[in-house]
Specification:
The protein has 484 residues and is α+β, with helices and mostly antiparallel strands. It has 15 helices and 15 strands. Helix 8 packs across helix 14.
Length: 484
Amino acid sequence: MSVPHERMSRVDTAWLRMDTPENLMMIVGVWLLSPRLELETLRQRVGERLLQYRRFTQRVVEDPMGAQWVNVPDFDLTDHVIAVDLEARPGQSRTDALKEHVAALTADPLDARLPLWQIQLIQDVDGRSAMVSRIHHCIADGIALISVMLSITDGGLPPPVRRKRSEPESDEGEFDWVIDTLVKPVTQLTMQTVKLASKGVSKGMDAFMHPDQPMDGTLHLARLGFQAVNDVSALAVMPNDSATRLKGKPGIAKRVAWNDDLPLDRVKVVGKALMGSINDVLLSCVAGAIGEYLRSKGDDPTGLEIRAMVPVNLRPMDKAYQLGNRFGLVPLVLPIGIDNPVERLYAVRARMHDLKGSFQPLMAFGLLSVAGLLIKPVQHALLGLFAKKATAVMTNVPGPQKPLQFCGCTVDQVLFWVPQSGDIGMGVSILTYAGKVQFGLITDAGLCPDPQAIVDRLPGAFERLETLTLMLPWGEDQLEGLPG
């Protein structure tokens, strides 16, 4: 029997309070499915699977000490899973109309009287159904939400019946790829990077996550405060990134865009040839596309660098399905002013290497923990430091290699957009899915009114890198596996 209410963790409280009219803390996603998905079928699946996570039947009630999760006794699924008619202007494609609709949703707050999530079903988007989800960041971070959303797909296992890791392998579903392909390598990398293998550190993080547990008097609070002070100091002395038209005071209106024209196999080959990772290749292409966009606007990005705050998972592998937020942030510099694609890739690789051994992901977690204990003005002042030092928030998530199935439909595309905090006006999302790289971009309408012009440049940025890779003086043993 569940309790009627429970305290929200300090970190989740920070995300709850981070909402501003300009930047709402919602993770927005779109699944494009074929053939047609019916509303009652969607509601049945959501009721059977998603509602087994109690957070989706609890509303948030704020109080002087923070916030509580409160059960909703008269919860009505029809308030949360709804059908929406998509209106397209004369001559406008249904896909472009969907982009406008999603952009409007990112600026529309969820109803605080209800649990903070919603799924909309939209029909006839160029022959497909679109499932648009909005989930407040205080419920969970991206890694946890990926696990949740995959659990509602065909073959996904809801929480109560997932097999324990000590049990023998079974043929039930293909859900284990979340652990083996996604969470396991990311978590192992994070533990190596921030040295989270220490039991003492893990215990301290557990205390930050669970506000009802004692923190051993002032010792843990002192450690947490010291950690946050270090983080604030590190951010304060960090130089601001380059001033571009993409940086400034955002407004309420947003724009979204996406592109999925880049085959993952080609990215792997180029990365291997240049002794870089898939991530290095994709980030260098993002930097190149942004630089080209600025040139198209008459700006000169030569020598400029912008900084993106990149989430890093801090969740242990055996807690992959737990909701809540458990990640840190690392500042990644993108060399948008380097025109040569190969030189730009090596610059990105060097910057990624510089992040190894950094304790900043853990320190950012501590800052968010402390921020959750503070009044909103002080919290916003603390978190505003991120916006002063960065132009974008960026996340890169590896997805399944084969298309997912949902209620008998094929999920053709999986798209999502990350929220931006403070005065950050751009969010870049990269997802590898079913053999393709899918880029999602959300921007402030005033700072960047045409984000599609950036994502449409991504395939070209990669092709120039691929062409130069083929032109390098390879030996015969190095040519194996290269295209052409």
